[in-house]
């Protein structure tokens, strides 16, 4: 009988212990899950924050970075370099517009002048040249206008007025080359002055600390960078303008030779 009670007591204790263990496990499981969920949420927040920071860094455009560096360079030499860029671009754009308007289809013009000359005489050819824009047409008009004084006079007029038109095409181009040379020189001058100021700070402090001169050296180098950027931009425009002028001058020379041949043939009729 005692053995029976002992067995029942041991069985009851074991059953009660298993129930408590299950309850404890059931209670700890949600807590563990909550901890894991909190940790996961924290990691997600950190990832989102890091992604936001990366996106903010990526959203900084080249223009914004350029503006920031320009402000750091100081208003002194940076302002002068900026003036060189503005004036150089203004002249370059004006020249490009002028040269594009001066471009003429010389083959078509020569054909029209020759047809008008054969059908209506010199006055009809002059009217065609007068109604056509561009330096080639202006040279044609001057040559035709002087044809009444002889073929030699017309040829001299074409050559002389061709030089005048070439001067008009090259007008103000030398200023662009000046700004191309001036911008990096101003940048180098700003760098030298900035380095002198940095060494003055070292001398005043009596010690060589990187943090003491790093800012001054960075600002000094920025002037050179922007000077070189301005020179590169203006150099591209300058080369385009020179190539355009050479193309127009070649057309002028070819068209002038063709006009002299046409007038020579016309004078023999």
Automatic annotation (TrEMBL):
MotA/TolQ/ExbB proton channel domain boundaries: 135-253
Ranges annotated as spanning the membrane: 76-98, 175-199, 219-242
InterPro entries documented for this protein: ExbB/TolQ_transport (IPR050790), MotA_ExbB_proton_chnl (IPR002898)
Membrane association type: Multi-pass membrane protein
GO-annotated cellular components: plasma membrane
Pfam families in the cross-refs: MotA_ExbB
Annotated signal peptide: 1-21
Lineage: superkingdom: Bacteria
Subcellular locations according to the entry: Cell membrane; Membrane
Keyword check for Transport: yes
Keyword presence, Signal: yes
One GO-annotated biological process of the protein: protein import
Keywords: Cell membrane, Cell projection, Cilium, Flagellum, Membrane, Protein transport, Signal, Transmembrane, Transmembrane helix, Transport
UniProt similarity note: Belongs to the exbB/tolQ family.
The protein's name in its UniProt record: Flagellar motor protein MotA
């Amino acid at each position: 009988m005692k053995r029976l009670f002992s067995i029942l007591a041991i069985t009851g204790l074991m059953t009660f212990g298993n129930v408590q263990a299950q309850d404890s496990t059931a209670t700890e499981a949600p807590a563990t899950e909550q901890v894991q969920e909190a940790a996961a949420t924290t990691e997600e927040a950190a990832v989102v924050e890091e992604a936001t920071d990366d996106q903010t860094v990526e959203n900084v455009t080249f223009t914004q970075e350029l503006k920031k560096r320009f402000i750091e360079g100081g208003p002194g030499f940076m302002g002068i370099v900026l003036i060189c860029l503005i004036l150089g671009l203004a002249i370059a754009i004006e020249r490009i517009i002028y040269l594009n308007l001066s471009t003429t289809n010389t083959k078509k013009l020569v054909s029209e002048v020759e047809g008008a000359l054969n059908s209506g005489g010199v006055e009809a050819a002059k009217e065609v040249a007068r109604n056509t824009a561009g330096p080639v047409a202006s040279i044609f008009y001057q040559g035709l206008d002087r044809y009444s004084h002889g073929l030699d006079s017309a040829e001299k007029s074409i050559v002389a007025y061709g030089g005048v038109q070439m001067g008009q095409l090259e007008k103000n181009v030398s200023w662009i080359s000046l700004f191309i040379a001036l911008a990096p020189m101003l940048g180098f001058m700003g760098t030298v002055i900035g380095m002198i100021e940095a060494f003055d700070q070292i001398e005043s402090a009596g010690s060589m600390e990187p943090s003491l001169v790093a800012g001054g050296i960075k600002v000094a180098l920025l002037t050179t960078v922007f000077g070189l950027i301005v020179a590169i931009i203006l150099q591209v425009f300058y080369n385009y303008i020179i190539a355009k002028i050479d193309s127009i001058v070649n057309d002028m020379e070819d068209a002038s030779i063709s006009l002299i041949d046409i007038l020579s043939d016309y004078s023999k009729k």
